[in-house]
């Protein structure tokens, strides 16, 4: 009898053999399809470790052992202690856990960058409502400058948050320099500032090392690296000071209540291991496709909105039409791309605001199209995309 996994590949085969329209997928910063290895790990774990890891019978203990084996594996892949890692339902929940824990403190000041994803930015009005002072630091050209962060710091600052890689343009922030700025300030203020970095678009996609960055917290998501949806990770350097969203059930050492999604956690592990294997070579290949598309776009005199040294996995440019029109034209050619950041229902409005904060002209922001790649993006598909862009632009 065919296994569940065989059914998935049979379905894929029949899709290819049928006359279904071609779909070339260039929206990997929004989400990625699950890889075969992640799917296999997911299905195997669901079958072999179906019991609740909190149950005290043999099957429960077996599931718990598997959960802790996977946590150790993440700790070794990320170069941190396993006690610092907590599985969540995704980056949005990881971020919510950090920001909601501020509400248990005496109000102070929270600083975030103006280019944060809504999962972070949406917390500012909540904090203000609870008496916190908030400030958004500018990011001209897409980058938060240490001196701008420095001038926002005050003795009552309790949190500073800057994302590692922009989901809109792929701009890579200098987190090392920004953390250093905060740590220098702490020496004079003698008060601890929690430095948080939403690292969803960094994991596996740029050289990124939690062990060498002196940050206090970070969020990650599986579905951006060919893992399952609805599973994420929260890194906390010092978990003891942290108040959870819910401690009901006592899972994740009391820091995240709720039955653990073990198959998804296993799928996430398999996906990350695959992304980190030979990561430089994979990145180099994506960089090649990115460069080819940049050349195509530049030859059409269209402004490229991603900085030169951005993550190779994201390339934003201003199309000649409003972004939703251009995205629709690409879609008619069997190509999925995105207008703006497309990881939320309000993607366009959100990314236009972020682009304005980056100093991108509003007409270019309105026409912005984001192409995003994954390690399974082929040169052939990128070549077809380049021809489709040329065809649309040359009428
Ligand atoms: N942060 C960034 C930078 C993102 O790109 C996303 C993607 O949607 C998120 C947070 C939210 O992640 P999740 O879908 O895992 O909640």
Which helices and strands appear, and what pairs or packs with what?
Blueprint lengths: L3 H14 L6 E2 L10 H13 L9 H21 L6 E4 L2 H12 L6 E5 L4 H4 L1 H7 L3 E5 L8 H7 L4 E5 L13 H15 L4 E5 L18 E5 L10 E5 L25 H15 L2 H21 L14 E5 L4 H10 L2 E2 L1 E2 L7 H11 L4 H5 L1 E5 L6 H15 L2
Parallel strand pairs: 1-10, 3-4, 3-5, 5-6, 6-7
Antiparallel strand pairs: 2-8, 7-8, 9-12, 11-12
Helix pairs in contact: 2-9, 3-9, 7-8, 10-14
The structure holds pyridoxal-5'-phosphate.
Structural write-up:
The chain has 395 residues and is of the alpha/beta class. It has 2 domains: 4-26 and 278-394, Aspartate Aminotransferase, domain 1; 37-276, Aspartate Aminotransferase, domain 2 (3-Layer(aba) Sandwich). It has 14 helices and 12 strands. The chain has helices at 4-17, 36-48, 58-78, 91-102, 118-121, 123-129, 146-152, 175-189, 262-276, 279-299, 323-332, 347-357, 362-366, 379-393; strands spanning 24-25, 85-88, 109-113, 133-137, 157-161, 194-198, 217-221, 232-236, 314-318, 335-336, 338-339, 368-372. A 7-stranded mixed sheet has the order 2-8-7-6-5-3-4, with helices on both faces. A 3-stranded antiparallel sheet has the order 9-12-11, sandwiched between helices. A two-stranded parallel sheet has the order 1-10. Strand 5 (157-161), helix 8 (175-189) and strand 6 form a beta-alpha-beta unit. Helix 2 packs antiparallel against helix 9 (262-276) and helix 10 (279-299) packs parallel to helix 14 (379-393). The longest helix has 21 residues, at 58-78. The termini are far apart. 46% of the residues are buried. Residues 1-5 have low confidence and may be disordered. Pyridoxal-5'-phosphate binds at residues 90-92, 117, 119, 163, 167, 198, 200-201, 221, 232, 343.
